[in-house]
Amino acid sequence: MKSPTLIDIKTLALDAGKILRAGYEKTHQVEYKSLIDPVTEIDYQAEDFLLKAILGKFPTHHILTEESGIIDGDHDHIWYIDPLDGTVNYAHGVPVFCVSIAYAYKNDLKFGAVYDPMRDELFSAVRGQGATMNGKTISASNETELERSLLTTGFPYDMWETVNDNLNDYGKFAKLTQGVRRLGSAALDLCYVAAGRLEGYWEHFVQPWDVAAGGLIAEESGAKVRKINGGKNYLTPPISILAAPPALYKKMDKVLKDN
Ligand code: IPD
Ligand code: CA
Ligand code: CA
User: Fold this and answer.
1) Ligand 2 centroid to 237 CA: how many Å?
2) Which range marks the domain in which residue 179 is found?
3) What would the pLDDT profile of 106-139 be if each residue is shown by its tens digit?
4) Do 108 and 158 have their domain in common?
5) Do 132 and 10 have their domain in common?
């Protein structure tokens, strides 16, 4: 059975990114999947493009996507697709969003690509071969102290109603570090950790398509990426995730576990 190549994945990310770029700052048809969880016509357009392109070449593969859910196929070949990560930013005209594509063979992530069309930054990784941004090797930060670190996180779409709103952890890290950013794109959060721009990322209750590509890219950059309960497989919901270089990972993990 045919597997994709890194070039296949990168090309898909670049082409879907063109769709996001072309639709940026146009007036959008915004629908709400829940109270504060929007989806635009561009999410659907980018996803349709990706599904047709992947199924055209790999018709038997299994695909998990944000908007269409599960396209059932051969579980030896699983794709994780977020056609537009950062939809709230996108719908408001904030230029922080990306497309995120990952491929796993026999349940092990092999390739990941995240493309930010506004900055023309293509992050990618192949398991065991390191991570790159626009072809150049990237590495997670060497920082070991929380007080010298800049972190990033996200908040769940049901934060108005849930007790798991991340505000307690956010408050703790805000007073232990140089700051905690909220980029609004989990995939870019992970890529920025991979590029050493930000030291660490945590978030509660994300979905596999949010973190599959960025997780592999962060791992290949030298960061440790795990579920907050320590589980190695961060693709099986419920997913609360922590990504940071090993020394900081230990410190962040302790903060997250201290009540
Ligand atoms: C969201 C973004 C956000 C994160 C949410 C995700 P979407 O994805 O990655 O940063 O905090 O958990 O759902 O809805 O923009 O694809
Ligand atoms: Ca997402
Ligand atoms: Ca999305």
Assistant:
1) 14
2) 146-257
3) 999 999 999 999 999 999 999 999 999 999 999 9
4) no
5) yes
Say how many Å lie between the CA of residue 87 and the centre of ligand 3: 6
Task: Name which residue sits closest to atom 8 of ligand 1, judged by CA.
Answer: 85
Q: List, for residues 38-47, the tens digit of each pLDDT value.
A: 889 999 999 9
Choosing from 206, 234, 239, 241 the residue with most ligand 1 atoms within 8 A of its CB, the one to mutate for a pocket test is 206
The CATH number for 162's domain is: 3.40.190.80
Residue 1 lies in a domain: no
Q: What's the rounded Cα separation, in Å, for the pair 106 and 86? A: 29
Number of domains within the chain = 2
- Regarding pTM above 0.90, the answer is yes
Ligand 2 center–CA 173 separation, angstroms: 23
For position 14, which CATH number holds?
A: 3.30.540.10
Within-domain flag for 76: yes
Strand 98-105 versus strand 108-116 pairing type:
antiparallel
**69 Cβ neighbours under 8 A, 6+ residues apart:** none
Residues 82 and 166 both lie in one domain: no
Residue 214 falls inside a structural domain: yes
